[in-house]
Amino acid sequence: MSLVAGVDYGTLSVRVSIVDSERGRIGSGVAEYPLNRRREDPDYATQSHADHMRALAEATAKALVSAKVAGKDVEALAIDTTGSSVIPVDSRLQPIDDYYLWCDHRAWREAAQITETAHRTGLKAIEWCGGIYSSEWGFSKLLHWLRHNPDKHARFATALEHCDMVAATLCGVTDPAQAPRSICAMGHKWMWNDSLGGLPPEEFLVEVDPLLKGIRERLAGRYSTSDRVAGRLSAEWAARLGLSAGIPIPVGAFDAHWDAIGAGVQTGDVVNVVGTSTCIMAIAPSAALIPGVCGVVQGSVHPGMAGIEAGLSATGDIFDAIARRAGTTVPALSEGLDAYKAGQTGLLRLTWDNGDRTVLVNPELGGVTFGWKLTHTAQDELFAAIEGTAFHTRVILDRMAEYGVPIRRVINGGGIPQKNEVLNRVYANVLNKPVLVPESEVTSLGSAIFAFLAAGVFPSIEEAQRKLCPKFRVIKPDPKAAETYEELYRAWRGAYFALGRKSAEPAAMGAILPLVRRVAAEAQNSN
Q1: What's the confidence (pLDDT) of residue 512?
Q2: Which of 14, 191, 308, 394 could form a disulfide bond with 282, CB atoms 3.0-4.6 angstroms apart?
Q3: Maximum distance among all alpha carbons in the chain?
Q4: Which sign does the torsion angle of CA 163, 164, 168, 171 carry?
């Protein structure tokens, strides 16, 4: 029997779980931190490193009490975080500014410039992250910071991803050259590609903007997969966390990637980590390009496999926004949704409220809804939004299958599927595949698995998964609903590509409204 701590940093809180190698999760603690937004700038989203570390200490203390164990018995600690969440630091790895959180989209102009320059100069790395660079990713965020903070340039030494910053802090690393660099983070968000020589070349970065001169060298460090140890817990942070100094901390990764491991991902699976946004994760034996997919990186999700990441820029955020506009909450608005039938609202919704992460990779898109009538309610819109996120997920899975990653099983992970059976049912019917939902929450379980590897408790990820991952309950598609959604999906997909691409050919859209009204009428008449 061994104990480890698995840490998961989400958008608004950090969860620490104490996991027993025989009994699984035996206790956990959660602590929150503020998200800084500005009403006058909806693209703005930052957080404080000090707030994150304070919350980590608070959550660890709660977890130890919940598990009824002593901190000295914890043998390893592993951390996953949101990404790309970027922080500029000085020569001692001390923060100069707050994190640019993953959902900070101020750098959309920088992202567009990086994309244009990459295609004009023939940079191969751009194709490995879907062909379009995102405002959610590292270089665009860093360039935006450099452009808007000239007074801080003298102190700037490097920038770190959140997962690497926390690991470095806990291990007492103060030399940028020794900072851990997660291949998961750097591969998916910074165009790092071992087969192409690592980061993009200096001449490309300078072509984007002379402010990036020397940045490639400044992003030095120990690039590693998560089966490697980033360092050992320092005495200072051992005292703050109530743990033993010297326990191993593996190289970190992104939350969705490790959630996929915690959900039991295998080759042929896709894991939809459904929360405020959706991260769609899969693994394959080797890396191959998939146009429009956020990234294909060898060693990112599973150190021995190619990790494939796609996703939706907003899912739960859309549901929350609908409820907020209606002056209520998502749980209250969801009461009675289980009686809704496929397409009965007569609404067809493109869920671009926070842009498109995959496959169009365009943060400037906005939500579109076809079919509004004066009698529609907020509850109707919520159901249509659930259908819309399912249609968008299907577009992504179709693209993955088209390029050699066929999907055998669909696993709905994340927080929302645990408490929203309507979403699971709609996804099963839209995807026309059984949807597997873990019987218990997997958040921070992936972190625990990598902590066990660092402690030498399990010989492989697969062995740890067999021991620790929860069983699934299965939601099978309803044939009649799946047939209805097949028809609606064809219309949805046509609108998605016709409205979402500036280069799209003129498309006939006149069939959409008659279709959704006919489907709604048929659903109502079948009651």
Answers
A1: 97
A2: 308
A3: 69
A4: positive
Per the CB < 8 A criterion, the answer to whether 11 and 35 are in contact is yes
Task: State the Cα–Cα distance between residues 146 and 385, nearest whole angstrom.
Answer: 37
Cite the beta strand spans of 383-442 per DSSP E.
409-413, 435-438
pTM: 0.88
Residue 253 — φ and ψ, nearest 5°?
Answer: -160, -175
Strand-pairing partners, residue 181, are 223
Beta strands in 21-93 (DSSP E): 24-32, 36-38, 41-47, 74-81, 86-89
Task: Look at residues 418, 459, 457 and name the one whose alpha carbon lies nearest to residue 435.
Answer: 418
- Contact (CB, 8 A) for 420 and 334: yes
449 and 460 in contact (C-beta within 8 Å)?
Answer: no
Do residues 149 and 212 lie in contact, with contact meaning Cβ atoms separated by under 8 Å?
A: no
What Rg value do the Cα atoms of the chain yield, rounded? 23
Q: From CA 48, how far away is CA 227, in angstroms rounded? A: 28
Distance CA 124, CA 128 (A): 7
Phi, psi of 524 (to 5 degrees): -65, -40
Q: 3-state SS of the chain: helix, strand, coil percent to 5? A: 45, 20, 35
pLDDT at 435: 96
Token readout for 125 is: 């790395």
Alpha helices in 122-254 (DSSP H): 138-148, 162-171, 183-189, 202-208, 215-218, 235-241
Nearest alpha carbon to residue 226 among 257, 250, 254: 250
Alpha carbon 252 to chain centroid distance? 14
SS3 499: helix
Written as one letter, the residue type at 100 is Y
Using left for φ > 0, alpha for ψ between -120 and 50, and beta otherwise, residue 414 falls in left
Q: What's the rounded Cα separation, in Å, for the pair 100 and 136?
A: 9
Bridge partners (DSSP) listed for residue 58: none
**CA distances from residue 233 to 30, 276, 396 in whole angstroms, order as listed:** 21, 31, 40
**In angstroms, how far is CA 198 from the centroid of its own chain?**
23
Which of 237, 87, 231 shows the shortest CA–CA distance to 157?
A: 87
For 51, the token pair is 């707030």
Residue 526, preceding bond cis, omega within 30 degrees? no
Residue 126 has, within 13 A of its CA and on its CB side, a CA count of 20
CB of 179 closer than 8 Å to CB of 93: yes
What does the alpha-carbon distance between residue 6 and residue 250 come to, in Å, rounded to a whole number? Answer: 11
Joined together, the tokens standing for residue 86 give: 């970027």
Q: How far apart are CA 367 and CA 173, in angstroms?
A: 44
Q: What is the pLDDT of residue 527?
A: 66
Residue pair 22/73 in contact by the 8 Å Cβ criterion: no
Helix (H) or strand (E) run with residue 502 in it: none
388-442: per-residue pLDDT in tens? 999 999 999 999 999 989 898 999 988 899 899 999 999 999 999 999 999 988 8
Q: Which amino acid is it at 234?
A: S
What span, in angstroms and rounded, lies between the C-alpha atoms of 25 and 5? 10
Give the pairing type, strands 306-312 and 295-298. antiparallel
**How far is residue 49's CA from residue 156's CA, in Å, rounded to a whole number?**
16
DSSP state of 299: T
